[in-house]
Amino acid sequence: MTTTTPTTPTAPTTDAATTDAATADAPPADARALGLAHYAARGVLEQILARHGVTFQQQVVLRAAATAQTPPTRDGLVAEVRGALKADPAGIRTVVDGLLDKGLLVADGAHLPATDAGRELLAAVGAAVAPVGARIWGGDTRRGPGRRRPRPRARHRAGRRRVRRTDGRVTAGPRGRVPPPAPGDGRTA
């Protein structure tokens, strides 16, 4: 009978299927690193939006209109994005008017649904931002949708273990090596 003991009791171990090499070797994130990643991602997003002739505020309002369960009203749309943009309602109404002028939103009575052009714009921006955002935030850009990440090699796996036999002898040390025989244990070198 064999039992296992962890080599390092420093952190709780996770399931090996969910741990990958990128997260096993990554240092813990601090506020500064997260802030830098946020500003890098925001800068890339604003460059891509500028290529499409849209501002960040317009993209936020357009996404809110396109993802709503039912087409929002002007006041409902302003109320929904006010917290995200931290802007006054008059400024958000100006953004909504700009989207109407560009044909990305359409006035359908009191409601403002996104047009097909607006949805295509959001899809194009999302496709352009995804690979860069994955690199900034540490994702794997080589994977396709629905594909799992490859399992990490044993040397990267968290919670390496060594096996001890019931008589107390170690049969496999860290990194899979068997330690040299101890005097009098009956093994030969």
TrEMBL record:
Domain of life from the UniProt record: Bacteria
Gene3D superfamilies listed in its UniProt record: Winged helix-like DNA-binding domain superfamily/Winged helix DNA-binding domain (1.10.10.10)
Chain intervals for the UniProt region annotation (Disordered): 1-24, 136-189
Basic residues compositional bias, start-end: 144-164
Protein name, as recorded: MarR family transcriptional regulator
Organism: Streptomyces lividans 1326
Taxonomic classification: Bacteria, Bacillati, Actinomycetota, Actinomycetes, Kitasatosporales
